[in-house]
Every structure is written in structure tokens, then in C-alpha cells.
Amino acid sequence: MSGPSPHADLTPAQRLDIAALTAAYPGAIAGLEVADGLVTLVTVSGKRFLYDDGRVKTAQEALDDPDLEDMLAQAYPPGPVSEDPAPGFHPGRRRVTGFFLEVYGHDPGEVSAACRPVRFLDRTVMFNARNGAADALSRVSARLADLVARDPGLKEILYPVVGTFCWRTIAGTQRLSMHALAIAVDVNPGRNPYWRHHRRPSDKLSRRRRFPKEVIEAFEAEGFIWGGKWAEYDLMHFEYRPELLTKSRLLQEDRSERPREQKPGHFSMPNIGKDVSVKCIKK
Ligand SMILES: [Zn+2]
Q1: Which residues are CB-neighbours of 171 under 8 A, at least 6 positions away?
Q2: Ligand 1 mean position to 127 CA, how many Å?
Q3: pTM higher than 0.85, yes or no?
Q4: 264 CA distance to ligand 1 centroid (A)?
Q5: Fewer CB within 10 A of the terminal residue: the chain, N end or C end?
């Protein structure tokens, strides 16, 4: 088995995805196997994940049973939203669940043991401490606290914070929610709707646009994606998916080496604790 560094046998697209994954999950990925044209990611626990399973999938199949290539195929666009995404565009909704179970825990007991309390805005939530997720949420909280201090009106967008750790599937599906792994947080569900429950979908674009860009940026700077960028939107939802932000950054750096373009987003680094019960959102 070779190391996880860029491999001569990989295509540029494969190299980019593998670089994003290994940078985003440094403690979880042991290495890569490249044999007979097949690229396999091997976790430290010894589980193997085929990068490309070779299957041609419908949009639904790519959601229900993605490989790592499918998971990273839709590039997450950092920054504010100006348009509704094309149908089927939902960067981050394709998840290789088995990989995340290896990283964050396989059942409620294991995930619960992996969590630590994180002070997040006005309350304390349980968040997964593996792979830097809880530390990242803590840094988001510090960024948001600064923003709220300057603009108290942001509390209407952010409060109440609900739905962090809750073992469940995504409404209407068999897929495990990332809330089950305690790597997602929902802000003010009453104001920031989820597409299945949104009574006035005609205003979805204006809601995406009105969502404060500084809040989106505070999360993205620490490796979180926003569900407001999905065709089937989830405006309350932020999820720790550093591989997607890393890939976006690498794509931007790659482009900016030729023409002059804006420098990519940043990742920085930590902290805070007390308990509060957190409601489980059904969606
Ligand atoms: Zn959520």
C-alpha cells in the first residue's frame, strides 16, 4: 500500500479528490491502494472504500449509494448565493455513509462517547470531537459571537440553535442524517425552512439570498457547508464537511495559478462547556 500522497497513477481529478479527503480526514485515512486501474481508500481501521465503483448512476442512485467520486463530484461553491441551484445540484448531500461511520462512530453509543460539549452561541451542544469537528464548531461560535455583537439582529437568524446530536435518518429516506453523527447543527428552524416543510417555496430564492453572507462565511471558514446551497434546500442546516471546502479551495488555487483570481477561503484553528437538552428535528 502506498502512502496517501499524490500518486503517479492517479488522474488529475482523482488526485484532487484524494488530496481533499486526506487533508480533511488526517487521522482517519491510512493510505491508498491503486491496482488494475482501481483506486481504493483504506482507513486506519482497515475498512476499504472504492474511489470509483464504475457504476453509471441515476441522480437518485448517486444519493442513495454514492462512491467517493460521486460524493465529491459536485463542487461546493463558497460564498453567498445569487441563484437557485440547478435541479439535482446539492453538493454535500451525497455521502458515503460507511466512511462517516468509520470516522465518527458506528452507533449511538459510540457517537455519544465521541462527543464533547461545545459552547455554541447561547447554549451548550454535544458535538463529535473526532476529526476536529467540535473544535471547528467552537471556532464558528467565536466568529458568530463577534458578528452578533456587532449586529444583534443576527440573533433572529441564528436563535434558537437546535438539532445537533440525534440518531435518525433523513425524512423520507433510509439515509443516515449527519445529525446522527453529531457533526451538523440547525439554526432557527422556524425561520430557515427545509424544502419538504416549506409552505411558500416560491420565496426560496429570496430566502437563500437574504441569509446573511457573513454567517455563511463564518461556517465555511471552519469547514462547514450550508444546506441553503442545495436544490432541495435546508436553510437551517450546517454540516462539518471539510473535504468539500478543501476541494473548493484547491480548485480555486489551481485556477488562480494561471489568470489572476481571488484567493480562496481560509481555514484557521480553537474553544469553551455545560449541558442543555437539544431538540431532535424531524426532517
Ligand atoms: Zn440539519
Answers
A1: 196, 282, 283
A2: 13
A3: yes
A4: 26
A5: N
